[in-house]
Amino acid sequence: MLEVLNTPLFGITLSIIAFRIGIWVNQKIRHPLANPLLIAMTLIVLILVAFDIPLDLYEKGSAVITLFLAPVTAVLALSIYRQRALLKSSLLPVLLGTLAGSVASLFSIKWTSNLLGLDRVFLASLLSKSVTTPIAIAITEQFGGIPALTVASTVISGTLGNLLAPMLAKIFFIKDPVAHGVGIGSCSHALGTSKALEIGEVEGAMSSIAISLSGVFTVLLAPFFFL
Hints:
Layout (H helix, E strand, L loop, with lengths): L1 H4 L2 H22 L6 H15 L4 H12 L2 H7 L1 H6 L1 H6 L1 H26 L3 H7 L6 H10 L4 H25 L5 H23 L1 H25 L2
Helix pairs in contact: 2-3, 2-4, 8-12, 8-13, 10-11, 11-12, 12-13
């Protein structure tokens, strides 16, 4: 048993099983708070604590999974290519809307961090909260932040977007499907996009495009907000 724990296979297997359980629970409950990633994280922590398993043993496997984050990030370009016709017809609104969402997210974190006097390591960890996890982690590591904190913040951001997107659209009278989709995707990444797909096909497509574009804008702009 100890030999298995000392191999990367333990961390990989535990991660896969925990995530599959998270997906199963999400499909059964159908609630934004039943997020597969959040459920998987909770299960993994509970198992490590309950069986007194050192975190270092789990990290041997999780490090292997982390290696695939960069290729996964590159695959996001496919969503832009597949929706190129829709993007071409609404290019300027999509670009400006996504840029505005990215700037607003970065500015809010920078302003809040300064207001509360947070250490720069927290700023580095939270700057990328509104982009998809692979890109968010890459940005955090670039600035010396805490990846675990980044993952938690992206889950919270996405969950809130999933919960609040329909209500906010009504409050601010957002009826244009392109604007609605761009707003969701640029602020709450994949978790928000799942809600956008429920709202409509155009909203889902534009949200998918916004995920990729907001990732690009955040990578380019984040260094200026970390000064």
